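Subject: for your reference before the review

Hello V.,

The reviewers asked for a structural picture of the protein, and I figured it would be easier to keep everything in one thread rather than splitting it across files. Below is the amino acid sequence we used in the manuscript, unchanged from the supplementary table.
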Amino acid sequence: MLGGRTGSGKTRILHALRDAYGAQVLDLEGLASHRGSSFGWIAQAEQPSTEMFGNLVAHAWRKLDPNKWVFVEDEATNVGKVSTPPVLYGAMRSAPLVVKVVLPLEARLTLLVEDYASEEAIAATKNWRERMEKSISNMERRLGGAMVKETLERHRRGDVRGVASVLLGYYDKLYDKHVANASGTGTGTGERSGDIVIAEADPESTRLDEVALARIVLDRVKAFDASN
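And here is what came back from the structure prediction:
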């Protein structure tokens, strides 16, 4: 499993594992046409139905070699409006190894702005501004009224980096619970069965180098193999 807080570049690293190093990957977000968060719809095509998503996942899985490592992003039970197939989700939660990517905050903020609020992302998303307001407003139960008001004000001023910074405070806490407990939910209990190891970028880096981090991920897998 490839884990890490929001904005750590997990999807880009997953693609680098495949494209730069020839590793096997299962890109659930790509198949679901959604990045997984409340804002995962940005710059994405319309999502398939849950049934179609399950079919796409099964088709992709059949192409993989079961005797080699398969890298999968550490998703929740849902990716946008579609549900992760239960058998696959169970396998993900019991995976023997989770490599948790650690990226400096400034690099994470830069990546989030690129993916969710760059000119290209906005141009690829119909009614981006209005839908952003709706998505922020829909988080009131989780963030509280004051935090949503502040975030909306930042959004309306065009302070996209400020919006990302506020939201990371929420998503970081949520992911830290998700990665460690047995069920993967924010209220889950118990401990995850697999090993959790760290793949850390240069603490001084201000941008993601996905190829370099993919190499570190592979090194962590190699070390795991050698110790088991």
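For the response letter, the relevant points are probably these. The mean pLDDT is 93. The first strand starts at residue 2 and ends at 4.

Happy to draft the paragraph if you're swamped.

O.
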